[in-house]
Amino acid sequence: MIGASFGLALRQAGFDGTILGVSSPRAVESAIEASAIDRAAPLVEAVAQADLVFLSSTIGRILDAVRHLDPLVRPDALVTDAGSTKCEIVDLARQTLRRCQFLGGHPMAGKETRGAAAADAGLFQGRTWVLTPAEPAELETPMAREFQTWLERIGARLVVLDSDEHDRIVSRTSHLPQLASTALASLLGDVRRLEVSGSGLTDMTRLAASSYDLWRDILATNSGHIERALADYIQKLEHMRENLRTRQLQREFERGAASAGRLRRTV
User: Fold this and answer.
1) In sequence order, what DSSP letters do the residues of the chain get, joined into one string?
2) Whose CB has fewer CB within 10 Å in the chain, the N or C terminal residue?
């Protein structure tokens, strides 16, 4: 879905070059039907032609692709990715990609649904796209500059972070919300009359529709930061449980409302 949305966004922004898709026959057929790519190609053929290699599969598959790219890429190519965690991907790329440049990335946009059929050319409009260079000079190469220009054309807001800082932040802003939504929805399994609920429950459990196949690699490659985020969240819930009858809970409501308001002004 991310890769196909990127292809559609490039087309909408005026890109007139060839976009090749490398995936399963079913996935690339869906991407062609969505007009997200021009045609399918084997990895060796596609990478040999590519100015930009955009890795937008699951993290495990991104890591596997990175291990095999170096003999295939053009020396002036840029390889980037859409992985939701960055440290393992970036570290591996620095070790294995020597013939071309790698620039880690994470578009902070998505849906619960997967596949090219769910692609959206406007998916990245106004959304943060994190870049994780090892040093600032990596953003100043010709290919990196051109890539950033296209990201701006598709409406993304660029943010530059260290890989570990990125993984620490998203453990709270992305991975913890997913786990909290999943836990809440799982807890509802014993509730028979779900129609006795408001829109708040629907909002809170939206992320629970996400696929474990997608999240398995995310959780495995950021487990340290996620464990700390969960511990802090559990501690906060315990504090609220202990203060259901005290004014301490009012402070939590006020603090939560302030953060929620700041989030909505940001996004």
Assistant:
1) -HHHHHHHHHHHTT--S--EE-S-HHHHHHHHHTTS-SEE--HHHHHHH-SEEEE-S-HHHHHHHHHHHTTTS-TT-EEEE--S--HHHHHHHHHH--SSEEEEEEE----SS-SGGG--TTTTTT-EEEEE-SSGGGGSSHHHHHHHHHHHHTT-EEEE--HHHHHHHHIIIIIHHHHHHHHHHHHGGG-S-TTS--HHHHHHTGGGGS-HHHHHHHHHHTHHHHHHHHHHHHHHHHHHHHTTTSTHHHHHHHHHHHHHHHHHHH-
2) C
